[in-house]
């Protein structure tokens, strides 16, 4: 197996905007959950049927393991070690990019961070979200801006050379000036990677109730669009390359001499991605970037396995989702069965659409060679008239090798993607 996602659904407190499979105040279930998770990983290893990467682009990504949540850093080091030992039957952990999401409010212990690094975790993704304390309180985060910076510094001191910061724009009460101040501050930290997401008010969250009842207000669409444009301009000026709709990697990020194993190397994408169109102001070829390789596998529509409550996975042409409840997940695995709640077999047309929808998020877009390898059919034969129309509308650009979103198309990405469905 090349890509494995592991879901840790525990949080100290559930944020007001969160619609993920997460649970607060279930610390007493963590150890039983880890036992079940390790058992699921062993079952997956026993039934796994390997398949080769779909294309040279997919093969270049290499093995990845991603701990998401929830708050994976609520696990103690022994629990992390147990999971990694079980995962080793599925992924070559010695060569893998091993990422863990982390809440800055749980990540101030130097010994813990050093322990994570020694276990092989080589990339951290810190859920900073904002550097305005009032905004952080409003959305229910357990950390403040000072703790976010302290966590970042502590991770550096523990030897992490690949750090991502998650930020959200369009938050309740957030102004353009506040967003600009957050961007300016995090750029002085010089993280290797930034993931910037527009707030989505999901109907099942407390935030939805607060917004619809008029208790709080959120920026309108025009203001959120201005925040996105501001981020693109300021990050480009600071040397960050936007390689995906929501993701930026720092040009000249930390090199492999500081990092110790292949899992933390900057992805050598020069051969697979001879040009990332519009990725920088001068359209220069990019030979290496400290990208998130696990997410890159998603955008290439690669096969991946998900483990844990609420985890999703797919292998062509099957997609599946696990049971979401912690107790029902533990019970299912304890009964000796995979905890799958739903399975879907995708049609060839659906598989083609997913390959386009995911791939068009990348600034490099979708190559004809990758599409043909992944879908078993020609990109032009499948979508030629649609691509011609999108190009005529100025929403995409293309050449003989690939198709990608134009700058205008990036602002209207959802509308573009719907054309492939």
TrEMBL record:
InterPro entries: Coproporphyrinogen-III_oxidase, Elp3/MiaA/NifB-like_rSAM, HemN_C, HemW-like, rSAM, rSAM_sf
Compartment(s): Cytoplasm
Highest taxon above the source species: Bacteria
PROSITE patterns listed in its UniProt record: RADICAL_SAM (PS51918)
Entry annotated with the keyword Electron transport: no
Family label: Belongs to the anaerobic coproporphyrinogen-III oxidase family. HemW subfamily.
Protein known as: Heme chaperone HemW
């Amino acid at each position: 197996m090349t890509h494995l996602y592991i879901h840790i659904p525990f949080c100290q407190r559930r944020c007001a905007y969160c619609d993920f499979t997460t649970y607060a105040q279930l610390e007493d279930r963590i150890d039983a959950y880890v036992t079940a998770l390790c058992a699921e990983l062993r079952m997956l290893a026993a039934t796994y049927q390997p398949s080769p990467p779909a294309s040279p682009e997919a093969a270049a990504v290499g093995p990845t393991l991603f701990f998401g949540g929830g708050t994976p850093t609520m696990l103690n080091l022994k629990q992390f070690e147990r999971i990694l030992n079980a995962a080793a039957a599925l992924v070559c952990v010695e060569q893998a990019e091993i990422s863990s999401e982390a809440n800055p409010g749980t990540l101030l212990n130097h010994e813990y961070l050093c322990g994570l690094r020694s276990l092989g975790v080589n990339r951290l993704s810190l859920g900073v979200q904002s550097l305005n304390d009032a905004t952080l309180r409003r959305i229910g985060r357990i950390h403040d801006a000072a703790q976010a910076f302290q966590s970042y510094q502590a991770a550096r001191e523990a030897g992490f050379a690949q750090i991502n910061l998650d930020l959200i724009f369009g938050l309740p009460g957030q102004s353009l000036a506040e967003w600009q101040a957050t961007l300016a501050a995090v750029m002085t930290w010089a993280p290797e990677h930034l993931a910037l997401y527009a707030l989505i008010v999901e109907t099942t969250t407390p935030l939805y109730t607060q917004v619809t009842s008029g208790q709080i207000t959120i920026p309108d669409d025009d203001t959120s669009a201005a925040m996105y444009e501001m981020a693109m301009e300021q990050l480009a000026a600071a040397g960050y390359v936007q390689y995906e709709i929501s993701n930026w990697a720092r040009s000249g990020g930390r090199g492999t001499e500081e990092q110790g194993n292949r899992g933390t190397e900057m992805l050598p994408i020069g051969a697979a991605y001879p040009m990332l169109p519009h990725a920088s102001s001068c359209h220069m070829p990019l030979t290496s970037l400290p990208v998130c390789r696990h997410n890159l596998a998603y955008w290439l529509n690669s096969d991946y396995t998900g483990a844990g409550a609420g985890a999703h996975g797919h292998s062509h042409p099957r997609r599946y989702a696990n049971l979401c409840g912690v107790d029902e997940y533990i019970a299912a695995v304890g009964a000796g069965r995979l905890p799958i709640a739903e399975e879907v077999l995708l049609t060839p047309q659906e598989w083609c659409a997913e390959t386009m929808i995911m791939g068009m998020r990348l600034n490099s877009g979708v190559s004809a060679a990758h599409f043909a390898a992944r879908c078993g059919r020609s990109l032009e034969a499948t979508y030629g008239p649609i691509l011609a129309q999108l190009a005529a509308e100025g929403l995409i650009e293309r050449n003989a090798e690939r198709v990608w979103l134009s700058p205008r198309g990036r602002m209207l990405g959802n509308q573009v993607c719907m054309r492939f469905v």
